[in-house]
Design goal:
The complex is a heterodimer of chains A (338) and B (554). Chain A is an alpha+beta fold and 338 residues long. Chain A contains nine helices and 18 strands. In chain B, the strands form two sheets. A two-stranded antiparallel sheet of chain B has the order 1-2. Chain B has a two-stranded antiparallel ribbon with strand order 3-4. Classes of the chains: A alpha+beta (338), B mainly alpha (554).
């Protein structure tokens, strides 16, 4: 449906996007995930038509929409700061796009009511937007961008300014509202947890290019490069030339590890029991540190060769300084690109 | 189609620049031309005459002297008051500070007349003193004296100095002072070693501004001083209008322009230093407790009340009291055109003129100011140049502008000299910086995402301008509009040059009436001054009201 073809963009002499190619299927929620300054918002603005100086092409249903002005694209964009119109009431904010469509007054009124209901703000139609809480503003902004039935919905860090507790719950709600409206959406965030909760597919970006894309599970289970692994919060990323790795890798055998420049030992694949798999590698480690996280412990342990492994366990098996045996499951050792 | 729209926008954006080029740069260049090449070739004889004549050197020296004196007296009175305002919290403080700014918007003719009615030979104070003490002569002889001029300048500039120093002092806080006190400083050494050195940047900045205003003062000196006390401004006017010596007037203008340029540069550099200090912790004003503190506070308030309001009160009283009785005959006389008067129209017609011109000037300045604000706000290398460029009319004396108009715009294709249009145009030029300074903060406060949000919701650029940006600019535009209106109503220097017989404005008529010997003319000038004062004070009140809610860069 939407195709971004080899798009590049620069702010002055600084490249903000380099040769980005992406696809969006109808009804899909694609997450652009990356640290600030990686170009994800710029890409969103290019798709929205707010940024017009770029190389490459943006195709919608096979048609290059480069020459189409932002107000003619029929795409919805939800801004990070919500960009609610401060001189208009909640209802008027939502009605703004509907008025541009030239709908009848009554029709607009009904639509605004149903949208307010959908985001759970029925009583707020007349309210001044300045008097709304952060979460309420976010809902109004969502309702406003949904109102004109956009062909594509874009959300730029829609939960960025809210506190962490609200985020998890609202991320799920957002997904449900987008899905129930049957919309295709692009969702920009720097928070991988939010991306997991909302996205059908994730594109991880860094310094202007897409480093990996796939389903949340794929990206988490098999990150393609050291940046992605680290950005998703995965520790245990080592250089292939790291001497302390050689013993472990010779045990793992099979693959030619030197193809990648580094190696991830996925924390999810480090367990206390080898289970029924005979290929699991066992290692003697000394527990160095433990952080209590509530539902689990984040542990750091060192192998005999001095390699530090991080992983999580439900219970603390030994006290700090104690020795234990861990199993590294087959497939938990993942070669990474630079 | 997009391309045509783009061309249209560029054309719109060029409007303010064209206006500035045609009605500011071109007249100024004409002054250069007339002063340096009066007969079409380089001829510096006007300058030689200027510099070799004790008379004109005297004019220049007097201009500097009276400005320096005005500055010194203003600072002497305003510094202690600023200290009291920054230091103490008392009831009515905000109101008083805001009222003290009123003179700033009052037309010079009104102020000059107000001081004449208070301190003149037949002024209110002399009347009061003679009736009370049954003196045979009038004890106050200030008419046509330097003292009168200085007093009027202090009246004008007191609030400017007070505001700058009060806000600076408040931002400095008093913690340093407390530290010095703990280290054993007494009151005297506090002033000498701590307070005055600390406030010096603000004093310098305020002093320069007061000096600039006094240096370019025109109406006050023309009316209260006369030719005996001619400053550069007054001399330019005399040479151009009474002597028709255009090369000499142009040479004087050139001196004026260059001095202004130099002083504005100095002022800008002092301002930069001020802004650095403004981030530091805010002061906590306290209530006056000791007898001494209360006495100081009372003295300051009394000084301000007497200085700022007694002349205005005298003007109002003189206009509504006829032989001790309340009588509005003065106002009724405005419809009459007195016989043998220098005026060609009845004063009431000048009121209509002023209103008409003010509305046109306001509309013009508002449109151009809005466009110019958008140009400045776009940021980038060009806009950084645009901001000071559009402020230039503010840094140019009204007399220079008026003089430039009559020598530049008097021949085809731009022969506006005989047209009344030249008046609202000159007013719009003077008002433009005020509009920009009022609109720009509101414009900068609009996040770009609002415009973009409107776009993604299907709003064309013009839709977003009308439905989002203009409503959000409302307050700034209103302040700018009222500024433009009051500036136009009170504008004197340029109008005196460009106004024709039938197109005279209120301030010009007041000035002409003052030159008329008859009693009828005096009565009319009083009535007109009061009306003009009310219009400007009304505008001022609305601006202050709107501004309390938070806009404006002044």
């Amino acid at each position: 449906m939407l195709r971004i073809e080899r798009v590049s963009h620069a702010y002055g002499s600084i490249d903000s996007l380099r040769d980005v190619t992406l696809d969006l299927e109808p009804g899909e929620i694609l997450c652009l995930l990356g640290p600030s300054g990686c170009g994800k918002t710029t890409l969103l603005r290019i798709i929205a038509g707010l940024e017009t100086e770029y190389d490459g092409a943006v195709l919608f249903d096979g048609e290059d929409i480069g020459p189409v002005a932002a107000h003619q694209r029929g795409f919805g964009l939800m801004f990070q700061d919500f960009a609610l119109f401060p001189h208009l009431s909640t209802g008027e904010n939502i009605a703004y796009g509907l008025k541009r469509l030239g709908l009848r007054r009554q029709e607009i009124g009904e639509k605004v009511q149903s949208l307010l209901k959908r985001v759970g703000l029925e009583q707020f139609e007349e309210r001044d937007v300045a008097s709304l809480s952060g979460g309420q503003k976010q809902r109004v902004a969502l309702a406003r961008s949904l109102a004109p039935n956009p062909r594509l919905l874009m959300l730029d860090e829609p939960l960025g300014s809210l506190d962490a507790q609200l985020r998890d719950q609202l991320a799920l709600e957002l997904r449900q509202i987008i899905k129930s409206a049957g919309l295709s959406a692009i969702y920009v965030t720097h928070d991988h947890r939010e991306a997991y909760a909302v996205a059908d597919r994730i594109a991880v970006m860094n310094i202007g290019s897409v480093r990996q894309h796939g389903s949340p599970r794929q990206v988490y289970r098999r990150p393609s490069c050291a940046f992605v692994a680290r950005f998703l919060g995965l520790k245990n990323v080592y250089s292939t030339s790291d001497g302390r790795m050689t013993g472990l890798l010779s045990l793992a055998g099979g693959e030619n590890w030197s193809t990648g420049s580094s190696i991830l030992i996925h924390p999810a694949g480090i367990r206390l029991e080898g289970g029924c798999s005979n290929d699991a590698i066992s290692a003697e480690v000394t527990l160095e540190a433990a952080i209590f996280r509530g539902e689990s412990y984040d542990l750091t342990a060192a192998t005999v060769s001095g390699l530090r492994l991080s992983f999580a366990l439900g219970e603390l098996p030994v006290s700090i300084g104690g020795k234990l045996k861990v199993y590294i499951m087959p497939g938990a050792i993942i070669p990474l690109d630079a | 189609m997009m391309r045509r729209a783009r061309e249209l926008w560029i054309a719109v954006f060029l409007l303010p620049l064209a206006f500035l080029g045609l009605f500011y740069v071109y007249p100024l260049l004409s002054i250069f031309d007339v002063s340096l090449r009066p007969a079409g070739f380089l001829d510096l004889s006007a300058f030689v005459r200027l510099l070799s004549s004790d008379y004109y050197i005297g004019t220049l020296l007097f201009t500097v002297y009276q400005a320096a004196l005005s500055t010194a007296v203003t600072l002497l009175l305003a510094t202690p008051c600023a200290f009291v305002f920054a230091r103490y919290q008392f009831r009515g403080k905000t109101l008083l500070l805001s009222l003290a700014t009123l003179p700033f918007v009052l037309p010079t003719v009104v102020v000059a007349l107000a001081f004449a009615t208070l301190l003149g030979v037949n002024g209110l104070l002399n009347d009061l003193l003679t009736t009370m003490s049954s003196l045979e002569y009038q004890p106050i002889q200030l008419e046509r004296s330097l003292a009168m001029i200085i007093i009027a300048h202090v009246f004008y500039n007191f609030a400017v100095a007070l505001r700058i120093m009060t806000s600076y002092w408040s931002s400095l806080g008093f913690r340093v002072e407390e530290a010095a006190r703990c280290l054993g400083a007494d009151e005297l050494s506090l002033w000498r070693d701590i307070r005055l050195p600390l406030i010096r940047p603000a004093m310098l900045s305020a002093g320069l501004l007061v000096f600039i205003f006094s240096f370019t003062s025109f109406g006050v000196i023309l009316i209260l001083g006369g030719i005996r006390f001619a400053t550069l401004e007054v001399q330019i006017y005399y040479q151009a209008v009474n002597m028709f010596n255009l090369p000499l007037a142009a040479a004087l203008s050139l001196v004026q322009i260059l001095s202004m340029l130099f002083m504005m540069m100095l002022y800008t550099s002092t301002q930069k230093r001020l802004q650095l200090a403004l981030d530091s912790s805010a002061a906590v004003a306290k209530r006056p407790r000791t007898l001494l503190e209360r006495l100081c506070l009372s003295l300051c308030v009394a000084l301000m009340a007497i200085l700022l309001f007694s002349p205005l009160l005298a003007l109002v009283l003189r206009s509504i009291l006829v032989a001790g009785q309340l009588d509005f005959a003065n106002f009724a006389s405005l419809v009459e055109k007195s016989r043998g008067s220098l005026l060609f129209i009845a004063p009431i017609e000048a009121i209509f003129n002023s209103l008409r011109f003010a509305l046109i000037a306001m509309f013009t300045a508002l449109c151009l100011g809005l466009i110019a604000s958008y140009m400045i706000e776009r940021r980038g290398r060009l806009s950084r140049l645009l901001d000071p460029l559009f402020m230039l009319p503010l840094a140019t004396s009204a007399v220079t502008l008026g003089f430039g108009f009559i020598i530049a715009l008097d021949e085809p294709p731009l022969n506006l000299r005989a047209s009344w249009l030249i008046i609202p145009i000159s007013h719009a030029l003077v008002a433009l910086p005020f509009v920009i300074r009022s609109v720009l903060p509101s414009l900068r406060a609009i996040p770009p995402s609002l415009r973009e949000a409107a776009q993604t919701l299907g709003a064309k650029p013009i839709d977003s301008l009308l439905t989002i940006e203009l409503p959000l600019l409302g307050r700034g535009l209103a302040v700018g509009a009222i500024f433009a209106f009051t500036v136009s109503m009170g504008e004197f220097g340029a109008s005196l040059f460009v106004a024709q017989r039938e197109s005279v404005t209120i301030p010009v008529v007041i000035y002409r009436l003052l030159g008329d010997p008859g009693f009828a003319s005096y009565r009319q000038s009083l009535a007109m001054s009061v009306l003009l004062m009310l219009v400007c004070a009304g505008g001022f009140v609305i601006i202050e009201r709107l501004r309390i809610a938070g806009v404006g860069e002044f």
